[in-house]
Amino acid sequence: TDHGETLVTDLIICCTGLKINSAAYSATFNDSMAENGALKVNGHLQVDGFSNIFAVGDCTNVNEPKTAYNAGFHAAVAVANIANSVSGKELTSYQTGNVTMLLAMGHDDGVGQYNGFRLPRWFVAWGKSRDVLVWKSWKEMKQKQP
Ligand SMILES: Cc1cc2nc3c(=O)[nH]c(=O)nc-3n(C[C@H](O)[C@H](O)[C@H](O)COP(=O)(O)OP(=O)(O)OC[C@H]3O[C@@H](n4cnc5c(N)ncnc54)[C@H](O)[C@@H]3O)c2cc1C
User: Needs which cofactor (predicted)?
Assistant: First the structure.
């Protein structure tokens, strides 16, 4: 360790956490940023101070686990709201759901919860660990998996 201590371990899991990289927008949206560099958004996912700019995914200050799963829901709301803005319809809102998390632990094991309910390990292994949902990305991109 940084104090010269030696630890004998079987496994080390590095958990450094994620830091928002705001380099792409910090100059332009400085006034719309939270302290950690996230973009402040309202319930419609509009960036603070702008009605025609939306943010989705990890860069937002939505208070929830930062996952691709949630980013997909953000995207659906932002896309709908861009269309709604253009057609003059009422904007839709993003609601954070209960925590859903499927954690693959190798090919044959995993833990997870869906909408607050703990899932059986075999179910997570069957549903996610075997191929980490790669099929879903191929499907969403309308491509055939080779
Ligand atoms: C180890 C790990 C495991 C994860 N597992 C899961 C999981 O199982 N399920 C799940 O749902 N989520 C998971 N996540 C979280 C998921 O990866 C993120 O929530 C998701 O990728 C966020 O998508 P995003 O498009 O908002 O941001 P990102 O995927 O981070 O995309 C941002 C992109 O912008 C680019 N970029 C940044 N700055 C600039 C710039 N100045 N110019 C040009 N490009 C720039 C970056 O290179 C990056 O490609 C995991 C994350 C990690 C780190």
Answer: 6-hydroxy-FAD
